[in-house]
Write a structure and sequence with these properties.
By secondary structure, this protein is an alpha/beta fold. The chain has one domain (4-271): Spore Coat Polysaccharide Biosynthesis Protein SpsA, Chain A, CATH 3.90.550.10. The protein has ten helices and 13 strands.
């Protein structure tokens, strides 16, 4: 039903300087696998086998990662080390990768609009690699959202409860609770102060968007920080039609911050990592 997923991977990763001075933050490894590969595996598991990368300058390592390295493969062919390539070979066998460059950093909404030519007129997923989401007891977050899309056929955002004093870090929603964990959104605010937040339900980096979002973004003026905010476009979409919010099952790690990245690494090493 939804075959494409967009990956906005053009950000600078300033919170990880100097490590990200010459290496994309999306290539930072959680144990032995880059963040962006975790995201691609989640998307492919949800049936989104076309991965549309919105990249920027200095991001060539991402394109190289999702390609064959003939020299490396030749050097380790037939050795015990070859098994270390199994996970990325599986991704390359199942996925198709397209790329476009975001020339200016003007916000997530602008990044989504930059990737329009890779998507076309169809619903699509969006995955932010900074948010590592794991669900060992069932399907991944995007797979859960695809099932919800089958029912509602509208844009969907993944949400989680956050401490009230943390709302300034997120887009925050308010709306009618239809059933446990599912809300019809009527209000969305980008990074509100705690006293201005409509709730403590924060949007994390998983979306399913309908293609009319592109035209809405085109008419959306710059918002918080002078950037074109996807949250503002989704607010317009919610006012005109329908946007759902879904409290996903699983764990989310904020790998855009050093503490969250360390927490994710510790968790994956102790609970997920399996040496070939």
């Amino acid at each position: 039903m939804i075959s494409k997923c967009m990956f906005p991977v053009a950000g600078y990763g300033t919170r990880f300087l100097p490590a990200t001075k010459s290496m994309p933050k999306e290539m930072l490894p959680v144990v032995n696998k880059p963040l962006v590969q975790y995201g691609v595996e989640e998307a492919i598991a949800a049936g989104m086998t076309t991965c549309a990368m919105v990249t920027g300058r200095g991001k060539r390592a991402i394109a190289d990662h999702f390609d064959i390295s003939y020299e490396l493969e030749h050097q380790i062919a037939g050795t015990g080390k070859e098994a270390y390539l199994d996970s990325i070979r599986n991704v390359l066998d199942k996925g198709t990768f397209t790329m476009v460059r975001q020339r200016e950093m003007k916000g997530l909404g602008h990044a989504i609009l930059t990737g329009e030519t890779l998507i076309g007129n169809e619903p699509f997923g969006v995955l932010l690699s900074d948010d590592l989401c794991l669900n060992e007891d069932g399907p991944g977050v995007l797979s859960q959202m695809v099932e919800l899309y089958r029912q509602f056929r509208c844009s969907i955002v993944a949400i989680m409860e956050v401490p009230p004093d943390q709302t300034h870090k997120y887009g925050v929603i308010a709306g009618e609770s239809l059933k446990d964990g599912i809300y019809r959104v009527d209000r969305m605010v980008e990074k509100p102060k705690p006293e201005d937040a409509p709730s403590n339900l924060a949007i994390i980096g998983r979306y399913i968007l309908t293609p009319d979002i592109f035209d809405i973004i085109r008419e959306t003026p710059p918002g918080a920080n002078g950037e074109i905010q996807l949250t503002d476009a989704l607010q317009t979409q919610a006012t005109r039609g329908c946007v759902m919010a879904y409290k996903f099952k699983g764990r989310r790690f904020d790998c855009g911050s050093v503490p969250g990245f360390v927490e994710a690494t510790d968790y994956v090493y102790n609970n997920v990592y399996q040496q070939p």
